[in-house]
Design goal:
By secondary structure, this protein is mostly helical. It has a two-stranded antiparallel ribbon with strand order 1-2. The longest helix is centred in the C-terminal third of the chain and has 31 residues. The chain folds into two domains: about 70 residues, Winged helix-like DNA-binding domain superfamily/Winged helix DNA-binding domain (Arc Repressor Mutant, subunit A); about 150 residues, Four Helix Bundle (Hemerythrin (Met), subunit A). α5 packs antiparallel against α8. It starts with a helix and ends with a helix. About 75% of the residues lie in helices and about 5% in strands. β1 and β2 form a beta hairpin. It contains nine helices and two strands.
Length: about 220
């Protein structure tokens, strides 16, 4: 039986994690339990549980006297996360191709079709990020490995904090759509080797795109 407190904690977690990923709660923002409870209109206990989950999922850090704050991911943090993701995403894609059900393959194909229909000029940054997260979450679920799902979800959540501005470039969107297409096709076909290779390539190329974006940002700041 699901208790009311559990439902409130889930709701609080969803609202807070969404606000963090949308940059409505920017890096360094204090996550004061009393203040968040007032903001969400619920008691402190489920909010406290939600904040603990944010820490566990890598979206927040406990800073001693400063309390809990939204995590700040710099370039070196992001690249370290991608080293982990490249290995785990490849494994998840291989297992998804091997173990995914027909219904899960259909769901993955549908999510990818939604992503392919997007254009950088007619959708919000959150729309791209949300569908990208759903795509990778679907692959995690298809792996039917809870430990892999949990570990990968945490690294994906932290990495996505750095991707809010990636979709502003039409080229980045189109390249990502092609990479997702290769992963989706291989998984749907049940081709484990091709799925693993496509996922590994996607994460490696993602790192290159983000690095280029960061360098452009640094040059703009210096000019």
């Amino acid at each position: 039986m699901i208790e009311a407190g559990d439902l409130l904690a889930d709701r609080a977690y969803t609202q807070l994690s969404t606000a963090i990923l949308r940059n409505e709660l920017p890096p360094g923002t204090s996550l004061s339990v009393p203040e968040l409870a007032r903001r969400l209109g619920i008691s402190r206990s489920p909010v406290r549980e939600a904040v603990q989950r944010l820490i566990w999922d890598g979206l927040a850090d406990y800073r001693g006297r400063r309390g809990t704050v939204v995590v700040d991911i710099d370039l070196s943090d992001f690249l370290r996360l991608l080293e982990v993701r490249e290995v785990l995403e490849a494994l998840a894609a291989r297992l998804a191709a091997e173990r995914g059900s027909d219904a899960q393959r259909d769901d993955l194909r549908q999510i990818h079709q939604e992503f392919e229909s997007l254009k950088s000029s007619d959708a919000s940054q959150w729309a791209f990020l949300e569908i990208d997260m759903r795509f990778h979450a679907a692959i995690r679920a298809m792996s039917h490995n809870q430990d892999l799902d949990t570990t990968l979800a945490r690294s994906q959540g932290r990495a996505h904090l750095s991707l809010n501005t990636l979709w502003r470039r039409e080229r980045n969107l189109r390249v990502t759509q092609r990479e997702h297409a290769a992963i989706c096709e291989a998984i749907v076909d049940g081709d484990t080797d091709r799925a693993e290779s496509a996922a590994r390539t996607h994460i490696a190329c993602l790192g290159q795109r983000v690095l280029a974006m960061w360098e452009d940002h640094d040059r703009a700041d210096a000019s």
